[in-house]
């Protein structure tokens, strides 16, 4: 038994090394108690000589209990380790999933934040545009209210401005048609209002319209077109200094006499008939030759009556400038005609005619046509006293001053 006890204690000791620290302390206490109980048994059995007597079964119960406890503790420890491992794996898996979910949530949050910023910027732009639109709407409403507050005042102000401009054009440029159009438009606008208080103003406008219609009509457009045609013909008018002689028509040669058919039949007649035919042919040839010679002789000498001898000595450059000076005179006359400056117009027309007489060949058809047109234009009277539209303007201003 003493040999079995140490072996049992060794087994218990081996089992307790695999268990936890609390199980080891419990097994050690049980082993010491068993040893203490065995010692008296050995002493007690030493007296009688019963060494081969079997031991009771209850003496092996502590070992069984210790083994069972050790096994239970080992099973519990193994189960706890498995549970802890599974728990760790589950926690690690959940932490990994939580990290992935957190990353996704961060990405989504960033996208949402960017979208929110973009939306906020768009909202700010829309708010600014809305504010601008509201400001424009308020301005338009204010403008409409100002316009609709008193349309008569606006109409009268515009009519006054139109009449003032027409009066200035009438006095400065003599634009009768423009003044008539302005007065007629003003009268038509007042007629659309259909208000009795405008009767006095319309009456004054009607009087001014009658005054303008009574003025003598001057066809300024026709006069200007005629001047333009003269300016266009200046380059074609020949100068006194031109070397090209005038083309003289050459008289036709005298036809030769042809014998009738009966004369051929009588070719065998006496010599008197032959001599008369020869004399007539010789006379015809002499007349033709003398007329040609006389024509050539007349071309050698030309006699012209020129008031200014210097006009014959113009060089090509001077001839060019003479034509350009004539064009400038006519253009100045055109401007004076449009501005109704009669003094400047007549002065330029006289200077242009003097240039034509001095430097251009007045015998040519072009020069005669130009001089006739210039005299016809100059005969028009431009000194017409233009009436002022004071009556219409005063009536409009007096109406505006009424309370």
Automatic annotation (TrEMBL):
EC class: transferase
Disordered: annotated segments: 1-32
Biased composition (Low complexity): 10-32
Pfam families given in the database record: HemX
InterPro entries: HemX (IPR007470)
Name this protein carries in UniProt: Uroporphyrinogen-III C-methyltransferase
GO molecular function, one term: uroporphyrin-III C-methyltransferase activity
Gene Ontology biological process terms from the UniProt entry: methylation
Record organism: Undibacterium danionis
UniProt keyword Manganese present: no
Matches recorded under PANTHER family: PROTEIN HEMX (PTHR38043)
EC code(s) of this entry: 2.1.1.107
Record key words, sorted: Methyltransferase, Transferase
């Amino acid at each position: 038994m003493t040999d079995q006890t140490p072996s049992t204690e060794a087994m218990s000791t081996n089992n307790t090394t695999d268990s936890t620290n609390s199980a080891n302390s419990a097994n050690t206490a049980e082993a010491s108690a068993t040893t203490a109980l065995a010692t008296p048994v050995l002493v007690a059995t030493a007296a009688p000589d019963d060494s081969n007597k079997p031991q009771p079964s209850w003496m092996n119960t502590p070992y069984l209990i210790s083994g069972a406890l050790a096994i239970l503790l080992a099973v519990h420890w193994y189960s706890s380790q498995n549970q802890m491992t599974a728990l760790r794996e589950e926690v690690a898996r959940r932490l990994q999933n939580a990290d992935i979910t957190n990353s996704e949530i961060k990405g989504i949050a960033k996208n949402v934040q960017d979208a929110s910023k973009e939306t906020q910027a768009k909202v700010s732009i829309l708010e600014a545009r809305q504010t601008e639109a509201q400001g424009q709407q308020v301005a338009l409403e204010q403008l409409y209210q100002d316009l609709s507050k008193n349309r008569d005042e606006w109409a009268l102000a515009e009519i006054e401005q139109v009449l003032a401009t027409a009066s200035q054009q009438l006095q400065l440029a003599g634009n009768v048609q423009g003044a008539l159009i302005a007065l007629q438009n003003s009268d038509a606008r007042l007629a659309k209002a259909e208000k009795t208080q405008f009767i006095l103003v319309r009456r004054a406008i009607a009087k001014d319209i009658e005054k303008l219609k009574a003025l003598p009509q001057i066809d300024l457009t026709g006069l200007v077109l005629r001047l333009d045609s003269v300016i266009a013909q200046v380059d074609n008018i020949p100068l006194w200094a031109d070397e090209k002689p005038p083309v003289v028509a050459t008289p036709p040669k005298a036809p030769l006499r042809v014998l009738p058919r009966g004369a051929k039949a009588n070719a065998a007649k006496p010599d008197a008939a032959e001599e008369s035919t020869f004399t007539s042919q010789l006379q015809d040839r002499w007349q033709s030759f003398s007329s040609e010679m006389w024509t050539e002789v007349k071309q050698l000498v030309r006699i012209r009556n020129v008031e200014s001898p210097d006009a014959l000595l113009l060089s090509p450059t001077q001839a060019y400038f003479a034509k350009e000076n004539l064009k400038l005179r006519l253009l100045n006359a055109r401007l004076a005609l449009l501005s109704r400056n009669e003094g400047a117009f007549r002065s330029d027309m006289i200077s242009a005619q003097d240039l034509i007489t001095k430097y251009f060949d007045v015998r040519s058809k072009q020069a005669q046509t130009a001089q006739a047109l210039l005299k016809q234009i100059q005969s028009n009277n431009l000194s017409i006293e233009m009436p002022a539209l004071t009556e219409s303007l005063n009536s409009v201003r007096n109406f505006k001053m009424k309370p």
